[in-house]
């Protein structure tokens, strides 16, 4: 039988990014947590952690973390159905991964009522929509929003809708770089803005226009900062139409090539055995998100 004290130590180290912070979250010494991890590895006969900064779960560790996530959700169902078994606070914590653009646009409206009704505290991990599934595969989150349809083993995926992204820039930027009108062939030579190394939206947009090869770009890992750089005339970039509707109406930002939106599919991934809490959140998202995305 699994020793859940040992699994809790593993989960704390990964969740808090180190032995010291993980131990503090459990009210234990760093040495005690280290001993629990070693005992877990001894019983399994295989490492569960890669000792690096921050520590990373091995394949065996990821399996155990996935199990811990699902057990916690099922225990929450038991506390709901049998309140006498646990006198602690009824607030539950749910760890999810989502992309920064969803967090900056529709996410708050979609989950605010559900969080209040269910007394849930969310621990939100921000990842690019193309890579958020890694967090779930690694056992770090119970659910995620990402652009990939295929779920990991033991999980389901649900299409929430499509978020249109537009290539935009400020009037000043367009006038400075394209005085005679936007030239698609010249786009790779003017500065773009890219969210991070995993952001491929600008790359796909250029390929959609028939432009191949490298291009110049700034890196800005902030959804709000991304828009501020655009309005300041520092570069052009792909942003959700929802996020810049006001700027487009006022003329602060303009589409570079009208009619060439990138439609990004957003999928909700969640554990199949995640219990009533995840099922309820899934129903809430399925009902609300399509309307919010328009």
TrEMBL record:
InterPro entries in the cross-refs: ArgP, LTTR, LysR_HTH_N, LysR_subst-bd, WH-like_DNA-bd_sf, WH_DNA-bd_sf
Family in the record: Belongs to the LysR transcriptional regulatory family.
NCBIfam families xref list: argP, PRK03635.1, PRK13348.1
The protein's name: LysR family transcriptional regulator ArgP
Superkingdom of source: Bacteria
Keywords: DNA-binding, Transcription, Transcription regulation
Domain (HTH lysR-type): residue spans on this chain: 2-58
